[in-house]
Every structure is written in C-alpha cells, then in structure tokens.
Amino acid sequence: MKIEQIYTGCLAEAAYYIESNGEAAIIDPLREVSPYLKKAEQNNVKIKYIFETHFHADFVSGHVDLAEKSGATIVYGPTAKTNFETHIAKDNEVFKIGEITITTLHTPGHTPESTTYLLKDADGKDYCIFSGDTLFIGDVGRPDLAQQGELTMEDMAATLYDSLHNKILTLADDVIVYPAHGAGSACGKNMSKETFDTLGHQKEVNYALKASSKEQFIKEVTDGILPPPQYFAKNAAMNKGGYESIDDVYEKGLVALDPQAFEDKANQTNALILDTRDPQVFAKAFIPNSINIGLNGQFAPWVGALVPDLKQEILLVTEDGKAQETITRLARVGYDNTIGYLEGGMAAWEDSGKDIDQIESISAETFETILNTNNHVNALDVRKPGEYESEHLEATLTRPLDYINEWTTEVNPNESYYIHCAGGYRSMIAASILKARGINNVIDIAGGYAAIKTTNLKRTDFACPSKAMKV
C-alpha cells in the first residue's frame, strides 16, 4: 500500500495518490492531470477510481480530464448531481483498490454532498480518512458555502456537528486524518500549517472538536467567517457541470506574441494584461494599464478574488519560461481564456521603444520621514481586516485588497496615496489596480508592515488592537 499526499502550497490544497497491487486511486486531483498519469505509468498501475470529497469551490478539479484520459470512474458521495458520467456512491459503500478498501462516509455540513473516505488496509484495519473539507487539521469546513432553500449557515453547522460526531469521531484515535486543505485556504478560518495528523490528537487540540455541545460548536464555527471570494461559486459550478480540456486551454494560451502583436491583440480585445513578475521588478517598468499579481505569491486565489469574470480574456507578461506555469495556475481556478503571452518579456517590450509606466516604491524609512514632516498623508493598509485589527499604524486607513473593487470609488484621483500590506506583495497588486483605474499618484511602501515596524516610529504610533474601519 502506498499513500502519497501531493500538496500544492499556493492553493493550500492536498490531492492524494493511493496505490495497491497494481491499482490506484486519486482523491481531489488538481486541474492539470499529467502528473497523476505519469505517476501511474511509472509505477505500472491502472488508475481505477477518482474520488471527489465534494464540489470544490476554491479550485477546479481535474476529475473530468483525468477520467477521460485514464478510464477511471469518478466517484462522488450521496446527493451529488453532475452533468457528466459519474458514480454516486451510497453511504458506507465499499470500493476495492488492490488489497485495500475505501468506504464512503457521507459527512454533509460543509456542503450537502461532502463525503469522507475511510481507507482500510489489507488486514481490514481502519488506517486513515480523507476528510476533504469536513475536518481540517485545527479546524472544520466553513458551513456557509452551500446553503440551500431555507437552510441557514447555522443549520449547515448543526449538520456538520452531527457528521463529525456520528461518522468520524467514533473512529479509533490512531486513524490518520488527511484533509483537502491546510493553512492559507479560505475554506476554513483556523487551519494548521500541518497537513495531516492523528484523529486522537485532533480531538485534543482542534477547537471545533472540543466544543462541549452542539450549540457551542455552531457558535464557534460560524463566528468570524469572512465572505467567500467571488470565484468560489463559479468554481463549484464548473466542478459540477464540466469544463474545457486543459489541453485546449494550453493550445489557446501558449501563443508567443512579439511586442507589436501583443499590443495589437490588447487593442483589438478587452483582454486584461496580467504581469506576474516580482512586485519590485514590476514597479520599475511595466506596460501601461497592466495589473501585477506576482506568480511567487498566492497567485491563483488573488486572481480569483479580484478578477470578477472567469471568461475574461488575459494577456500575460511573465518571466522567461513561466508562461505555461502561469496558464496552469490560472486554469486551476477557472480562468481558461489566456490568449497569448509577451515573447521575450518586458525586455523585448522596452527594446521595441514602446511606452512603459512605473510605480514609485519607497523604503519604510522614507515613509517614516514623510509621516513626521507632513500633517496630511493618505496612507492605506490593504491587509485583511483581522491583520489590521491585530496591529496597525494609527496613520493608516484599512482598505483590504479583497474589497478593492468596492472602495476604489472613494479614492480621489487628484491626491497621492501611500500603500502597504504585510510584506509588499499585496500592496503592489493594489497600487497597480489603482494606477490602471486612473489614480496616478500611488506610492508603494517596500517591505510593508514588517519593514515599517523596524523604523524609529514610537511604539505608541501603533494601535493594538483596534477596530477596523468597515468598507
């Protein structure tokens, strides 16, 4: 028996490869399926099943492509309905892979079809569970994503409580918990950086499992949940209904365009110019009206949060050799309409003599001097509300990047704005969006709040904690 957790840090997502005696199963595969096919081919095994724990909202699963290319059967839990061929399992249905078995445990609450898969080894012993978004390490799934009819978030939380206590917590303490996500995912609020644990240890440390009653569980699980990113419902719909082949997405997007062809394509379409280079590299020279979302950060989730239309056509500016990786990561969250990339990158654009734009980026020390010598400074903190509430500079206003499409109208295009986040990644995203929307005087604070805290600003200049301004 072989179990491999395939963890993708930028999405905080875990897929699983399971193998026994010439047969394999994949749980919650990512959109690009070639790694699973290659692994099975190298090990000379046949992929028999693709198990889906639920209709994922935060990424597009690779189940449809993988089934077509491998001949494997897609399995969903009870109540799931799809627009493609799939096996809807019954509660406690058993599937055999080589010498091991996987049993369906219907565990609704995060979503109605949410299912946990119990793996038993060759001796019939309960070995591990693949808990999807029902049980995380340190947390449980948010209950607000799939409310139906008159069902409320509290109703779903109550259902989740029953699922946990009737189906999962009855298992032995040495059973290993393999969840679908880790820290950084928006599918929960208190996930650990650890990506697996024993059930017994989770009973001791997981706040949700330690709740003394169903009422307390509902209160704690529903408290402090932020609204889900706008792309969540759209990704769930793609997972239910099917999607374009990843091969077609590559064929359409991997089109190298010289600077003139790139410019012509941009003028002929309503394409978003997406620049995925490092924020500080972007600031020095970029194509006017392009948006910076760096590939080396939480790239796909930020695209999903900030670009409202999954059908938006996209033109890419990347570092050399990064076009295919960028297209892959966009497709993981449902953005399938990349229509080309700038051949030779920004060096080619600059060599062609075409216009460039810049964003001023200053050090935290320079920002300190500005604050000490000016009575009126527009300073925006684009971190999440919880980060701002924990500690912030009193001179700043909270303007979370997540909600920039809502608060941009408050910004005066005739004034200057200093922008920071925690370390500089999100502030450059915000600055580039504002710049593209006609706010020309935006200044990024390099290094963000981490750098600001190393300055000589007095400790009393920091508020901790402070209630964040609502936007």
List its traits.
Oxidized Rhodanese, domain 1, six-stranded mixed beta sheet, 17 helices, 21% strand, globular
Q: Can you characterise this structure?
A:
This protein has 471 residues and is α/β, with parallel strands linked by helices. It folds into 3 domains: 2-233, Metallo-beta-lactamase, Chain A, CATH 3.60.15; 244-351, Oxidized Rhodanese, domain 1 (3-Layer(aba) Sandwich), CATH 3.40.250.10; 360-463, Rhodanese-like domain (Oxidized Rhodanese, domain 1). It has a 6-stranded mixed beta sheet with strand order 1-2-3-4-5-6, with helices on one face. Strands 7-8-9-10-11-12 form a 6-stranded mixed beta sheet. Strands 13-17-16-14-15 form a 5-stranded parallel beta sheet. Helix 7 crosses helix 11 (323-331). The N and C termini lie far apart (52 Å).
Produce the secondary structure layout.
Layout: E1 2-8, E2 13-20, E3 23-27, H1 34-42, E4 46-51, H2 63-70, E5 73-76, E6 87-88, E7 94-97, E8 100-106, E9 115-120, E10 126-132, H3 153-168, E11 176-179, E12 197-198, H4 199-205, H5 214-222, H6 232-241, H7 246-253, E13 256-257, H8 259-268, E14 272-275, H9 279-284, E15 291-292, H10 299-306, E16 314-317, H11 323-331, E17 338-342, H12 345-351, E18 360-362, H13 364-373, E19 379-381, H14 385-390, E20 392-393, E21 396-398, H15 404-407, E22 417-420, H16 425-436, E23 442-445, H17 448-452, E24 462-463
In short:
With 471 residues, this protein is of the alpha/beta class. It contains 17 helices and 24 strands.
